């Protein structure tokens, strides 16, 4: 018998089980994250929801037996470690990238009619609305994959430094889900509980979201037009002033110490004349009655960037309470407007 044929016959007679690699030892199942059904804080919260809003106790108790503590949420929301040096230039680079610019221009072209309607209704420029949606979710590409119920329960009951805020948002989420007929266990969002293309927190959804596409329902997760109208309405109701700038360049007289003005905060409260008395001016022409704040954008070990923030700059920080965020939105908006 030829050698090759003999080898093939031997292989053919080997049982199939012997040809398979040995099975890996079974791994023990991962421990399930603890739920909130037995937590006294959650029980108190249920009591309040039943009393204030007429929720059915058994149904709400089932919800919290399903709500799971999420350790990743706590890790992501934790403050930066001691010694961390914030850098505006590094932050800026994350959001003024080719993808956001390309997709932003496409989003603007696709939804130009809705953006112009929002401008006419609320006086908010299209580029600002587009930039916010771009910074938040890259126009709906990244809206978060955390169960909002888990995220908000974790932060409400296991994050003491902001527990009051997140308990309020958990309350708003349950109310929103009831009004919307949504399954509270199925809604997905960010690790902080923000939802949809514009990443509205539940309280903002109930206060500012709008059915801008006119289909009879508000859907920030699937309707870009609803997202456009809702962002514009949010800014308008926080005091956006149509036709006014967001900021001016800052200039310092020699020897000026900016620290007292920085400590005064980002809410505009100084006129240009009052800033000039403190050694701060601008090469731009500023209306005499305009109120301004000195905005500093640290750059780690390099010199900070400074600007004079006007009312509209402050309004953007009501969306996300960060000067870095507001300036990223403004600069992305400028790039998008130029790229069109």
Automatic annotation (TrEMBL):
<dbReference type="InterPro" id="IPR031304">
    <property type="entry name" value="SLT_2"/>
</dbReference>
<protein>
    <submittedName>
        <fullName>Membrane-bound lytic murein transglycosylase B</fullName>
    </submittedName>
</protein>
<dbReference type="InterPro" id="IPR043426">
    <property type="entry name" value="MltB-like"/>
</dbReference>
<dbReference type="Pfam" id="PF13406">
    <property type="entry name" value="SLT_2"/>
</dbReference>
<dbReference type="GO" id="GO:0009253">
    <property type="term" value="P:peptidoglycan catabolic process"/>
</dbReference>
<feature type="active site">
    <location>
        <position position="136"/>
    </location>
</feature>
<feature type="signal peptide">
    <location>
        <begin position="1"/>
        <end position="18"/>
    </location>
</feature>
<dbReference type="GO" id="GO:0008933">
    <property type="term" value="F:peptidoglycan lytic transglycosylase activity"/>
</dbReference>
<dbReference type="InterPro" id="IPR011757">
    <property type="entry name" value="Lytic_transglycosylase_MltB"/>
</dbReference>
<feature type="domain" description="Transglycosylase SLT">
    <location>
        <begin position="39"/>
        <end position="334"/>
    </location>
</feature>
<keyword id="KW-0732">Signal</keyword>
<dbReference type="InterPro" id="IPR023346">
    <property type="entry name" value="Lysozyme-like_dom_sf"/>
</dbReference>
């Amino acid at each position: 018998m030829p050698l090759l044929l003999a080898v093939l016959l031997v292989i053919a007679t080997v049982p199939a089980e012997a040809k398979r690699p040995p099975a890996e030892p079974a791994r023990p199942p991962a421990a399930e994250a603890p739920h909130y059904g037995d937590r006294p804080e959650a029980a108190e919260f249920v009591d309040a929801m039943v009393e204030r809003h007429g929720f059915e106790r058994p149904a709400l108790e089932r919800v919290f037996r399903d709500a799971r503590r999420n350790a990743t949420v706590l890790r992501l929301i934790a403050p930066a470690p001691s010694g961390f040096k914030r850098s505006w230039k590094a932050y800026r680079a994350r959001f003024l990238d080719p993808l956001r610019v390309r997709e932003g221009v496409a989003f603007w072209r696709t939804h130009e009619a809705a953006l112009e309607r929002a401008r006419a209704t609320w006086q908010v420029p299209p580029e600002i609305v587009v930039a916010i949606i771009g910074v938040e979710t890259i126009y709906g590409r990244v809206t978060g994959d955390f169960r909002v119920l888990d995220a908000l329960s974790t932060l409400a009951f296991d994050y003491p430094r902001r527990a009051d805020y997140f308990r309020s948002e958990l309350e708003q989420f349950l109310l929103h889900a009831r009004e919307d007929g949504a399954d509270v266990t199925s809604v997905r969002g960010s690790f902080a509980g923000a939802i949809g293309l514009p990443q509205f927190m539940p309280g903002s959804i109930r206060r500012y979201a709008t059915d801008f596409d006119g289909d009879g329902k508000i859907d920030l997760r699937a309707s870009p037009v609803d997202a456009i109208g809702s962002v514009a309405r949010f800014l308008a109701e926080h005091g956006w002033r149509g036709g006014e700038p967001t900021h001016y360049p800052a200039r310092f007289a020699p020897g000026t110490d900016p620290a007292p003005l920085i400590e005064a905060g980002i809410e505009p409260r100084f006129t240009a004349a009052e800033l000039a008395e403190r050694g701060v001016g601008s090469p731009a022409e500023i209306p005499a009655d305009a109120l301004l704040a000195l905005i500093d954008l640290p750059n780690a070990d390099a010199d900070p960037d400074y600007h004079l923030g006007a009312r509209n700059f402050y309004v953007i920080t009501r969306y996300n309470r960060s000067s870095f965020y507001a300036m990223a939105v403004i600069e992305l908006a400028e790039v998008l407007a130029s790229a069109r």
